[in-house]
User: Fold this.
Amino acid sequence: MANSFTAAQYRKKALISQGLLRGNAFGRGRRGVLKCIEQLGYIQIDTISVVQRAHHHVLWSRVPGYQPAMLDKLVQDKQVFEYWFHAAAYLPMSQYRYALPRMQAIKSGEKHWFANTDRKLMTGIVQRIESEGPLMARDFADNNSGQNGWWEWKPAKQALEQLFMEGELMVVERRGFQKVYDITRRVLPEGIDLTVPGIHEQARYLIDTAIRSHGFATLKSFTYLRKGTDLRDAVKEQLQQLLEENELIEAELPCGTTVYCDPQMTSRKRPESRVVILSPFDNCIIQRERCQKTFGFDYQIECYVPARKRKFGYFCLPLLYKDQLVGRIDCKADRKTAVLHIKSLHLEALVDEAFYPHLAESINDFMQFNGSSEVSIECRARHSRKLTALV
Assistant:
C-alpha cells in the first residue's frame, strides 16, 4: 500500500527541497549561489526582461544579497556552464557529463536542432574562434540584407548555436545578454569527467535531480519535456530498483496521484512568515501540473496570451506566503525612470494581516533588485490600498 501524507507535508517537503521554506537556506555570496544551483540541478534562462531576467530572479529568491555578477563569476571560474536541461539553463560544471548524450545525439543527427546546417560555415567559424579567441554572433558578417524575424537568425548565428548544441563551443560569458563563444576544450576545467553516461545512468541522474530538488515527483515529471521511450523505460527500471533498495518510497498525493518520494518526507521545520515573489520560470512552479497538485495553484504566464484573454496581467509573478502560493502580482521595471510599476495584485487565498507588511518588504527588496528607486502601485483593489500605505 502506498504511503500517504497531508497536503501541508507535501508543500513543506517541496519548499525545503527548493530552499524556499526559510530564507538563507544556501548561505550567501558566490558559494551560496553555487550551492543553490547544485541543489536545484539547473536554473532556467529566459529572454524576457519585464523585470530582472528569470535566472537572476530565481537565485535572488533564495540567496540573500544576490547580485548578477555572482553568477557571472561562477561561469568565469568554470563552476557553472550553460547548456540545455529541459530548456536553456545554467548547470553545475560537476554535472557536465550528463549533457554529453544530448550533444552526441545532435551532432550525429539522431536529434535535430536546426533542420539544415551549413557545415562549411561551421568549420570556418570554429577556425576563426580557434585563432582569434572568443567571439559573438555580431563578429561574423551577415550576408542577408532582409529584415528577418528572430526565427530567421543570420546564418552565422544559426551555425554558432548548432556548434553550441553539439558541444563544440561553449558560452564563456554574456555581454548585454549576447553569448560569447569559445572552443569547448579551452573552457572545460582540467580533470573534468567526460565519460558519457549510459541510458540507465542518465535515468538515475534525472531521478536524483528531481528527488533532491523537489522531494517527490510523479513518473511523468522525471522526463519532463524529454522524448524517447528508451529513456522512459530506463527511468521505470531505475525507480523499481530504488524502491526495492528502500532509497525511495511510493506515496499518493491527496488528489490520488502516485509519486516517488524521499524516505525522509516529514520535517519539524516551520515556514517563515515572509512573502517571496517568484519568477514565472522558478523551479518550484515551472511544471504547472505539479504546481497545481502540490499547491492547488493554477498558474499560467500570460505574456503569451492575447491581451483580451488575460486574467491577471502580462507578467504576473506568483506570491509565496509561508508555505502556500496565495496570489500573483503583475510587475514591470522601467529602467529609464527607475520605477517598479505594480500593475495588478490578485490574492486567491485567505491571508492574515501580517501578510501585507511582509509583502511590502518583499516589494521594496524586489524594487532594489531591479535597479529601481521608486514603487508605483497602480491597481485599485482593496488589498492594494492596504499595500499602498506600507510601501
